[in-house]
Amino acid sequence: MFFLVIKRILLGFITLFIVSLITFVGVEILPGDACTTYLEREAYGAALEACYERLGLNVPAYERYISWAFGVLQGDFGYSLSGDMKINDVLGPRVKNSMVLASASILIGIPIALLLGIITALWRDKMPDIIISTIAIFSMTIPEFVSATLLILIVAIWLEWLPGIVIVPTGVSVYELLPNIILPVIAISMIMTAHMARMVRSSVIQVMASDYVQMAILKGVPYWKMVFKHVLPNALLPAINVVALTIAWLLGGVVVTEVVFNYPGLGRLVIESISNRDLPVVQALAIILASIYVSINLIADLMTLMLNPRLKSLQIKK
Amino acid sequence: MNNKKEKQKNIFQKILEILKTMASKPSGLIGLTILVFHVVLAITSPLYVPHDYKAIDPTLMLSPPSSEFWFGTDSLGRDVFTRTILGGRTALTVTFFGSLIALLWGGALGIFCGLVGGKTDDIVMRIIDAFLSIPWILAMLLIVSLLGTTTLVLIPALGFFYGKGIVRVARAATHDVIAKDFIVSARARGHSNFSIIWNEILPNVRDAIMVEGAMRWSWMLLGFSSLSFLGFGVSPPTPDWGLMISNARGLMSFAYWAVLAPIFGLSTLIIGINLTADAFAKALGIDRSTKAPV
Hints:
Chain A is mainly alpha-helical.
């Protein structure tokens, strides 16, 4: 059990190491480097040399990678190109803002998803299931920017209930941020809830069809007792992993949603840094987003390990 | 010769059977209808568009829907109806060929990894894991901003980034069949590796890979239109739904028609592809609903 956890954590670090290599090599082999893309037409002669000098691009690639990687390990991402700011200072408030948005969406989304998933599974193919599942299909297939735009059009413009876009400075406090995030949270949690509810539904249905549940029914265990004691614990365990993967998969959608609502989070920074061709920031973002993905999966794996007694004695889980 | 003809006929019958099963449920029938409608529209729409999609007319700016302009006009006075029925052409072409590429390389690498196993498999899977953990949008934006937004860049880039999930599925499916008796006996009969892959493994993993590919198509459409929306996809004045929504969004308090029309087009197409892919999976007896969208 202990070794399994250690192994899992090590694998996470290996993945992150490969991610850092991929982003580094990717930026290296794609045409243009940080200086030529940043300076664009002025990229020649002294200006280019000065830029190379300033960013340390005149040393061989592997040396740059090593010094960059050591910096990252110590929590230092270097300097951004456009603002001449330390990337850590650029990232700090953005990470906080995105965390607020993400945790609000998760806190609202997961309980609703569980509830809807269980309801649709227990009333399978009946009216509640058909209605909820149809709505779920709509909200999970429609792109984030479409549902976000529709939300703004209906709630903010036609009904005039809430402000349509977020106009707060990046470094605002959490308390001031909260009234602004209602619409973005609805937009994100709608898609997340739909995905998760669908998975919970099929997981519950699978367990309901299993032998031991049939046995419990035959033994005359009361319906609700059977649902809560036999079905849900067994159905929700495998769902943890899937839910984690879904949250991680939705990171890309969060980027788009932040742009639509003009929310000052990591997602908007992705677009800003790419439009400004600020490659050092892009590299830092790749590492940060990848570590979020890896850690969400790691937490889910560890949770399943801890909660599932059967896996404790098992060597490899997959 | 005769044998080959019969085989072809068999495949045709099988496809017809799958289509029949898909259409037998209301969701599959709706999905197929929408998809066929969109494909036919995309192929034939240039023949009957009422206006020129890039004709700018300042006197007609943001005029509401009328008998002349069914869906009104946009901020440059262009006909929204014309642009909407043309708007799916690029998206459909790019994502169709993109998912074909994803299917081919993902399937091939997955089968290869499942077959060889050992160190090679370990290394490849670690790299795939790493690629999976980079959000698609960041990678796509980086590639597109450095290489440009032509379809010749978009198709392989999307194909590459949406194929990595297929590698996993193909590998798992190969693992399931590789220990079966018919593979062992094929080896004992002295068949070459290629013959084993082509005649024994492929028929058994084909369904799983094709279902993944169909699912990828709808996700890729989502990704492609998100790129367009962010200004990194199709370049104007080419009509494209993502781009149209992004352009009309700022003015939607005055001119909601310019944003609702492309939203309708894009949403119906994505839902259509999704329902079709779901029905396709069910017709082949594959349950994808417990899997995460990776």
